[in-house]
């Protein structure tokens, strides 16, 4: 059992139209703790017909919600924010139990998730239109922004709370209604957010949480003409499927897909800061974030020193079950995640990489893996081409700025990139040359609610967070009024 202060947050039913329901055929999904493999809960395995019910409820709730004064939506969202903060310890306990991340990181995520609700509660009041000087004196031109309508979100397991609020908060702030389909691995956090939304006074049908068969529910949500917008965070592969499925209804899409982040350390970097940045960016969530650095490029003048310092810091990481005090790396999400890590390491070693630390499953067993550093990585290795999504840092040596920019951009992905330099001219050159949606300069952590999060190339479409984030849920309407 997961110990919670507020046991009402533990739900084994889905939220549809203000009711907490089970699957009509009684089918369930088992939720396990990745640290132990033990089943910790069962949630409904809903099907397409229940997704249809949710769509109808979202449609019915839309007029009431969208016509509320923005200030009233702000007040309700603000209550949701406060409740998330007040229940952050319980949300963290749920996340650690179903996802594995260390408790301190999970608490950080709960507050990060809350920050999107606070931000968009405020932004609800700032959906400004425009007046445009007309080409003739007889006309007035007005541009207004209106909620797009019924929205759906399909979210991943690596951030069970934040990926939901980053989508639901702007949608609701804009006046849209939303159906959330969380990842099957982490439904408990999503359902707890639904409980808090209900307590905050978010009306029935405005925010619904449905768990179940991803393909079937995804098929219904994308095929529906009522659902005008889909926001998805997950793999590029599934993003492509959802984009294709959304084509017949010309649905508006936000896609936050895979990354293959380069982390570049120039000779003139503050080396200790670069090591700390690499550590934070690589090993957070055991390497399971789409903005985790995947390729660490180090200029030859500081390569050996950087490698030595990084290995010393990695050796001090504490692997273990996320509720244990002091643990900094939890388990990977499942067996196939471990297999991918093993495959990438084996491929790299076969192609000439050198193991500096780690490289084995952890003695704790299950899906625990040793934090690993590899030297002498090259662009030909799988680890350079594909997202590893695990605690493995491959170090690549480079000589010139030009060479490293070419290597960094040599990928179909374009989500996050990082570089460390103390040279101001180089800072601008490199920041502008990197083909990425987000760039960290002298920083390994770049995500926050005030900045636009999103990628270019095959890393996705659209931006989340920031004042741009709400635009994803708005349509522009232009009114031409002839007054003469
Ligand atoms: P990951 O590989 O990180 O698990 P996925 O892209 O497979 O990422 O999953 C992200 C989300 O997409 C999850 O909520 C999952 O249930 C959902 N999903 C996976 N496959 C499909 C699909 N064919 N249609 C709709 N949703 C899907």
Written account of the structure:
One of its GO terms (molecular function) is succinate-semialdehyde dehydrogenase (NAD+) activity. Belongs to the aldehyde dehydrogenase family. Its EC number is 1.2.1.16. The active site is at 256. The chain has 484 residues and is an alpha/beta fold. The protein has 2 domains: 7-257 and 459-479, Aldehyde Dehydrogenase, Chain A, domain 1; 261-441, Aldehyde Dehydrogenase, Chain A, domain 2. It has helices at 48-66, 70-86, 88-99, 103-123, 162-174, 187-200, 214-223, 236-246, 271-283, 300-315, 335-350, 382-385, 401-409, 424-433; strands spanning 14-16, 19-21, 28-32, 39-44, 130-132, 139-147, 150-154, 177-181, 207-209, 227-233, 252-256, 261-265, 293-299, 354-357, 372-375, 392-398, 416-420, 438-441, 460-461, 474-482. Strands 14-15-16-13-12-17-18 form a 7-stranded mixed β-sheet, sandwiched between helices. Strands 9-8-7-10-11-19 form a 6-stranded mixed β-sheet, sandwiched between helices. Strands 5-6-20 form a 3-stranded antiparallel β-sheet, with no helix packed on it. 53% of the residues are buried. The model has no long low-confidence stretch (mean pLDDT 98).
């Amino acid at each position: 059992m997961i110990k919670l202060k507020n046991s009402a947050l533990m739900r084994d039913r889905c939220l549809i139209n203000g009711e907490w329901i089970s699957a009509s055929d009684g089918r369930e999904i088992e939720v396990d703790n990745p640290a132990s493999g033990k089943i910790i809960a069962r949630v409904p395995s809903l099907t397409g017909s229940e997704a249809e019910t949710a769509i109808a409820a979202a449609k019915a709730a839309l007029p009431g919600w969208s016509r509320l004064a923005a200030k009233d939506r702000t007040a309700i969202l603000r209550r949701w924010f406060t409740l998330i903060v007040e229940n952050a310890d319980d949300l963290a306990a749920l996340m650690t139990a179903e996802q594995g991340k260390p408790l301190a990181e999970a608490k950080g995520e709960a507050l990060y998730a809350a920050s999107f609700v606070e931000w968009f509660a405020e932004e609800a009041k700032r959906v400004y239109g425009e007046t445009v000087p007309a080409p003739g004196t007889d006309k007035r031109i007005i541009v207004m922004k209106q909620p797009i309508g019924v929205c759906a979100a399909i979210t991943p397991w690596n951030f069970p709370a934040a990926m939901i609020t980053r989508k639901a908060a702007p949608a609701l702030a804009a006046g849209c209604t939303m159906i959330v389909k969380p990842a099957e691995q982490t439904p408990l956090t999503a359902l707890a957010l639904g409980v808090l939304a209900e307590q905050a006074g978010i009306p029935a049908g405005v925010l619904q949480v449905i768990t179940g068969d991803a393909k079937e529910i995804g098929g219904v949500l994308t095929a529906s003409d009522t659902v005008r917008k889909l926001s998805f965070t997950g793999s590029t592969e599934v993003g492509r499927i959802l984009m294709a499925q959304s084509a017949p209804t010309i649905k508006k899409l936000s896609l936050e897909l895979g990354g293959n982040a380069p982390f570049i350390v120039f000779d003139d970097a503050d080396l200790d800061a670069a090591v700390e940045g690499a550590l934070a960016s690589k090993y957070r969530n055991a390497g399971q974030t789409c903005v985790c650095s995947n390729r660490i490029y180090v200029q030859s003048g500081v390569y050996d020193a950087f490698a030595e310092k990084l290995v010393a810091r990695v050796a001090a990481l504490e692997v273990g079950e996320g509720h244990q005090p002091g643990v900094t790396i939890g388990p990977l999400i499942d067996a196939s995640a471990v297999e991918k890590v093993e495959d990438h390491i084996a491929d790299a070693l076969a192609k000439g990489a050198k193991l500096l630390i780690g490289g084995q499953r952890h003695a704790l067993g299950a899906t625990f893996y040793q934090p690993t550093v590899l030297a002498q990585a090259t662009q030909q290795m799988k680890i350079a081409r594909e997202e590893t999504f695990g605690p493995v840092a491959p170090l690549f040596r480079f000589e010139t700025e030009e060479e490293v920019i070419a290597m960094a951009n040599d990928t179909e992905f374009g989500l996050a990139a990082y570089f460390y330099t103390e040279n101001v001219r180089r800072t601008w050159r490199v920041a502008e040359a990197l083909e990425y949606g987000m760039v960290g300069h002298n920083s390994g952590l770049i995500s926050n609610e005030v900045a636009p999060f999103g990628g270019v190339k095959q890393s996705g479409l659209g931006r989340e967070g920031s004042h741009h984030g709400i635009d994803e849920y708005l349509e522009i309407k232009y009114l031409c009024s002839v007054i003469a």
